[in-house]
Amino acid sequence: MAISPTLLTEIETLYRRIYGDELFAIHGRAFFSLLERYHSKRPSWLKKMDENPQWFQQANMIGITLYIDLFSKDLTGLQSKVDYFQSMGVQYIHLMPLLKAREGNNDGGYAVEDYQAIEPRLGDIATFQDVIKTYMDHGIYIAIDFVLNHTAKEHRWAKKALEGDPFYQAYYLMYDNEVIPNEFNKTVPEVLPDIYPGNFTYYPEIKKHVFTSFSEFQWDLNFANPYVLHDIVDIFLWMADMGVAMIRLDAIPFLWKELGTTCRNLPRVHDLMRLFQAVKQAVAPGVAILGEAIVEPEQIYHYFGTEKQPECDVLYNAISMVNIWDAIATRDTRMMAHELTRFPAPKHATWMNYVRCHDDIGWGFNEDFIRSTGRDPYLHKHYLISFFNGSFPYSFARGQNYQENAKTGDARTNGTLSALLGFEEAMEIGHPEMIERAFLRFELIHKLLFTLPGMPLIYSGDEWLQPNDKNHADKPGKKDGRWMHRPVFAWEKVQHPEKYPLESRAFTWLNTLIRFRQTEARFSNQASFQVLPSTEDAVLILQRDEEKPLIAIFNFSEFPKMIHLPTGQGSLVLTDPFTLKTKNVFDGQCHLDPYESCFFNL
Ligand code: GLC
To answer: Which of 5, 23, 124, 413 pairs with 434 at a CA distance of 20 to 30 A?
Structure first.
């Protein structure tokens, strides 16, 4: 079957919009023949996935994200771990960068030297394909990263550019003097001000200033050059044909640069995302595009596009992530209640809900909302920072500041789930009540993640309450503070759970919750989602489904709370379908224990 003419027209329109008619006249034919080539050789074993392009919307999807080397040493090791995921009920695994990265510090693999080779330490293409097939046979979809905003400076394109080849110099953004870089620096914020201030790096060997948003060794690609687009789309489709089910497009807000702007989320980036979506629909429809856009709430949402003009299929829900942590620190769920229903995923797409990942937490919240409650956004952010780094009196968190910016007073937060929820502190002190509270927070946070529409994502190791790696800075290439929450997976705990009663309790409990979610149809994306009014700021009340409502209640406070539920008059006994515990409600009055979270049928 040929590519649908509607998609071809859409692709042409987008191409012309991004590159102009003149460049389309020169390069358009080559671009279409690239698509035709992949379309005609799309492997037949991927048909099943292509016939079900919305596979990521399945109600029972639970995902996990991991670094292969930290989890199983290499791809061969990963082959033998399929049972672990299957017994947990995981259906989606994001393998963090596994393509050949530069040697030495490579930002955890996010500085790619060769997009079409596997990192030799991890294995090779053949082993990777075996892994994909094995996991697919077990009903588990595999996702990988496509770090397309930049290459390592050791990538062959960058090497040619460094040798002075003008064709490849045009693959990047390089300038002969500081005039334009200085102009950019006036409006472009810094990503890593602490370790890599500024947005440019000077290379004396070519006498050029190169755009390096992230670090000196990550060179931003110039997407205004159609040759870059062609090569990147070629690699994207090559990845798709390996059998990966989802491709995580890294750092998409940065893809387009224009003087006088922040160089984030520019309209052209959205055109590029629509182009990627149209290309994949035309050639590899079973592949889902996961956009990594960790920016302001409205800006994140924009990356879904619309039903008519779709961009990403899946987006990280950094909005709920930040708001969950905010409520943990403030015991105030008002902002979360306000934000949770503001950004419903359009029909074609879904959210990926998470609380921790391999990156730091950036405190991007709805500043207007904070103002409307009489608080100051700057001070509020500082409260969150000091709460999670543990310096605020009575804080239970053991995180650390990341990328403190002396100019703006900004900082982000690192730390594992266990450290931020208070397990680390409680276990060190050994106080049973503190441990119980941390456990209740662990339950609450997961029940909430599992109630939100979308796909819940677990960060590997959190299911075993992995603590911070305090010695990361002594390890080669692991100085960056984010390595604190990227420790080696503790198989010892899986093998000898009896020696780790608290950790195995968390793991077993989470497994039970996964099973509950997978058997409860009201968690599916088709079931409606609402935030119900709450008479207590510390208590969030959610409802899934209208016909047969499932109510989820979360007390974010260490104090008991009395709330009012819309249960009508008289006395009622409610049963939690997950724990089977009962609760007496009288005249709608309902008592909640500290940090209690529960489900009810209404
Ligand atoms: C993404 C990755 C992060 C990396 C950055 C640069 O944000 O998640 O780990 O440092 O992109 O590639």
So the answer is: 413
